[in-house]
Every structure is written in structure tokens, then in C-alpha cells.
Design goal:
By secondary structure, the protein is of the alpha+beta class. It has one domain (about 5-155, about 195-305): Acyl-CoA thioesterase, double hotdog domain (Porin, Beta Barrel), CATH 2.40.160. The chain is about 25% helix and about 35% strand. The chain contains six helices and twelve strands. The protein has a twelve-stranded antiparallel sheet with strand order 1-2-4-5-6-3-9-12-11-10-8-7, with helices on one face. A hairpin with a 3-residue loop joins strand 10 (about 270-280) and strand 11 (about 280-290). Helix 1 (about 5-20) packs antiparallel against helix 4 (about 175-190) and helix 3 (about 60-80) packs antiparallel against helix 6 (about 230-245). The longest helix has 20 residues, at about 60-80. It is globular and about 55 Å long. The termini are far apart. The relative contact order is 0.15.
């Protein structure tokens, strides 16, 4: 399939074009996040879903919600941290309403202030994510300011419709690392299980036993933040999709909370989910995301509820 015939490939090539402006990451550029309103302590951002990021039922893939949650809270804190500052997600939690993820995705993040007396500056944030007019989830988290990375540029804060988009790159214009992303997208368009985005990002968990699942995610530009680690929202998404797979379609995710232990580095990450409790209507799962050396990157607890018959 030619890239001119595929909206998914065109979106990848647009994301790569946007990514040539330094300061941000490919996942955010690929999703074409719009920074709609930026206040002193809050931010409103949005994503317009398309074939590149929706499931077969027309809903935005759950990983998009995870990335949007991470970005909306972090950017709300950036008025205090600065837009070139490196920031690490320390904790994040999402509580879902069960509303369908259909329509323009809008997130409102708020910065609640810094913890006093800590060795490094760490702040609290919270927010809500809507699909159309429906509340999809509430979010909360904490973020730590890191030393500014040498040569790191401020984030480009693009707003939908406020400036012209660059043209998507042509395959012949791609550098080696960009071509690897493009070829991965071409492979994700081949027939197979799951949505394009799940195949492209590598979010394809498999059950390994009753109430257990694993998912392997290959690191690279396609899932990386601006210093090459796995983007924080995608690390969270890796745990989220693995939790959902462990119990299957008869269960729904209602809440998930995570503590970030270390950056997602190395060639790959693995999520391992196991069921701690399964009752008649609720279940509790533990999901750990590990690096290639077996070290914990993300420690997660997920709350599930049995779906109605």
C-alpha cells in the first residue's frame, strides 16, 4: 500500500515531520496533540482521533487516553517548571467512568502545587479527560523536575488550526531512525489481530495462564520520549493493556494506579500481570513493567469489574 493511500502511514509521516522540530517526542507528534489553552496552573489539550489511533469499534485506543493523561498533567505543571525542563512522572492514576471513547478527546489538567521540603522539586497534578461531551476518566499524578538536559529545547506548543502543518515527509526523505518507524508502520498495516496502533506501538498482550498475561514492547523512536526513554504514558499503557488481557473480555478496567521506579531504557520492556483477587464482581491485579535486566520500571495495581451479561 502506498503511503498516499493510507491515512495511518500519512499520520506517521506527519508525526516524523513534526518531530524534526526539536523539543518534544514522536508519540505526541504522531498523535498531533493540540495545546489549546495554557494558563498559569492549568492546561487544556486535545487529540482528534483518526484511523491511526482507533479500535475496530470506533473508540480511541486506550493507550491514547494514557498518553493524554500523562501529557495533560505534566504540561499543567510546566508553567512553573519551564518548557525545556525534563520532568519525570512519579505516580499516575486513572479512574474510568465507562463512557465510550468516541469524538474529540479533550483533557483539562491542573497543577496543585509543589511538595515543600523535598530534595528535588516535585508537584501534584490532576485532571479529567472527555470524549466529546462525555467524561471518560479522572486522572491524578505527581511529577518531579529533573536537571535540564544539555541542549534540550523548549517544547513546541502547537495549537490545532493556529499555524500551518508541515507536509508529511516522503519515504525517500527519511533518515535511518525515521525509516525504521515508517517500516514498522507498514508492517502494522498487514492483516493481523488488533488495531493498527496496537501493532505499531507493540501493545499486544497475550494470556499466559488463568488470570495472567504478558506483553513485550520494543523500545525505539516510535515509543520514545525526547531523551530516548519510553514515554511515560506509553509505559502506563503497557501495564493497562496487559491488565485488561489477563482476565479477558468479561471484565472491565475501572481504575489503575502506578508508581514509576526508573526510566524505561534498554532494547525492550515487558509487562507481567497476575491476579491477586477475583471475586464475583470485582478483581484486583498486579502488573509490573520490567526492563531487559528484570528491574522494575513501573509497579501497578489495577481494579477490574465484571461486565454485565
Amino acid at each position: 500500500m502506498s503511503y498516499t493511500d493510507s491515512p495511518e502511514l500519512r499520520q506517521v509521516l506527519l508525526g516524523l515531520a513534526l518531530n524534526r522540530e526539536p523539543g518534544w517526542n514522536f508519540p505526541g507528534n504522531f498523535l498531533d496533540v493540540s495545546f489549546d489553552e495554557l494558563g498559569a496552573s492549568d492546561a487544556r489539550i486535545s487529540i482528534e482521533p483518526g484511523p491511526h489511533c482507533v479500535d475496530a469499534d470506533g473508540q480511541a485506543n486506550l493507550s491514547v487516553i494514557c498518553v493524554l493523561a500523562d501529557i495533560c498533567m505534566a504540561v499543567a505543571m510546566r508553567a512553573h517548571a519551564g518548557y525545556a525542563m525534563r520532568m519525570a512522572t512519579v505516580t499516575m492514576a486513572l479512574q474510568f467512568t465507562g463512557a465510550p471513547r468516541v469524538g474529540l478527546l479533550r483533557a483539562h489538567g491542573r497543577f496543585d502545587g509543589l511538595h515543600p521540603g523535598l530534595a528535588r522539586r516535585q508537584g501534584l497534578a490532576r485532571g479529567e479527560i472527555y470524549a466529546g461531551d462525555e467524561l471518560v476518566c479522572t486522572v491524578s499524578g505527581s511529577f518531579q523536575m529533573l536537571d535540564t538536559h544539555a541542549g534540550l529545547k523548549p517544547m513546541p506548543l502547537r495549537r490545532r488550526g493556529a499555524q500551518p502543518q508541515p507536509a508529511p515527509l516522503a519515504p525517500g526523505e527519511l533518515a535511518d531512525d525515521e525509516r525504521a518507524v515508517y517500516e514498522r508502520a507498514r508492517q502494522a498495516l498487514e492483516p493481523g489481530a488488533g488495531a493498527f496502533l496496537e501493532r505499531f506501538w507493540g501493545l499486544q498482550p497475550r494470556q499466559t495462564g488463568d488470570g495472567e498475561a504478558v506483553c513485550d514492547l520494543e523500545n525505539g523512536l516510535h515509543v520514545g520520549n525526547r531523551v530516548g526513554h519510553t514515554q511515560g504514558g506509553l509505559t502506563f499503557a503497557l501495564a493497562t493493556c496487559t491488565a485488561q488481557a489477563a482476565l479477558g473480555g468479561g471484565w472491565r478496567l475501572v481504575g489503575i494506579s502506578a508508581a514509576y521506579v526508573r526510566p524505561g531504557t534498554g532494547p525492550a520492556l515487558r509487562a507481567e500481570a497476575r491476579t491477586l483477587h477475583r471475586g464475583g464482581t470485582t478483581a484486583l491485579l498486579q502488573v509490573d513493567v520490567l526492563d531487559r535486566d528484570g528491574r522494575v520500571v513501573l509497579a501497578t495495581v489495577a481494579n477490574m469489574a465484571r461486565a454485565a451479561d
